[in-house]
Description:
Largest sheet: 8 strands, antiparallel
Number of helices: 1
Shape: globular
Order of helices and strands: EHEEEEEEEEEEEEEE
Helix content: under 10%
Low-confidence stretches: 1-15
Strand content: 35-45%
Distance between the termini: 36 Å
Amino acid sequence: MRINFALFIFTFSFISHSQVVLKADGPGDTYELINSVLAARKTAVETADGNELGNHASFGRHIAEVWDADLNENVFEFYAHINYGNPDKTRTTDNEPVADVDEKQRVEIKTYEPSPDNLKGIIGETVTYQWKMKLPKGFKPSKAFTHLHQIKAVGGAQELPIFTLSARAGSINQLDVVHNNENILASMNLSQLEDVWVEFTESIKIGPNGTYSITIKRVKDEKELLSYFNPNIETIRPTNKFIRPKWGIYRSLKKMDSLRSETVRFADFSIMEGTSVNK
């Protein structure tokens, strides 16, 4: 009797995941909640409320937690004010030049150097960011730039964002997905994001030849409004230590007469990091 032996080689992929969720839990202690999740109780908030960075103490905090009837949950509400020619201004904790304060306005939350390691995207990781957003009806973006989300880098060449979701004023206002602050990867009509909750899913494999994908879906019916995928794109620069996200309103004030005070809602932030090893 002859016996045949077959040799089978199995490839195993061991995947580790780390997920951090920031979810509004009701009015009060909003900054404390954000800081505890994103920055290990350091400062993850950049606003204009009269702290050492800001100039608008009379209004109070520029991010609050409010009840949203459409989502049936508490959400974060971001406020950016024009104030009849005296807009909110704030310096960033990233050592932004003083001169930039007069030209830009930001109400943002972020991860950065003091944040836990599992919130910093390094080479070899795949990071997925997910969140919901609702723009007000008639939202007016700046004629220069209005960023609603940024992927920035720390270390080396870190001044310009690697990716941005940027609202752009025009005959038809657009939302652009931008790479390295200049290359528009994808666009959609901004009016599709007004007065309706949408969910963003952004996935980044980090490396000089990484991958990038983003989808935007309407929450109420899961209709896909935008989808983009690039299998070979620089997602971190050679001199960078890690990448990190920012969310909020960051806009130019150079054409202030075209702007208005805005209130933008965000909800259900999620940061998931994963690594895989094949054997």
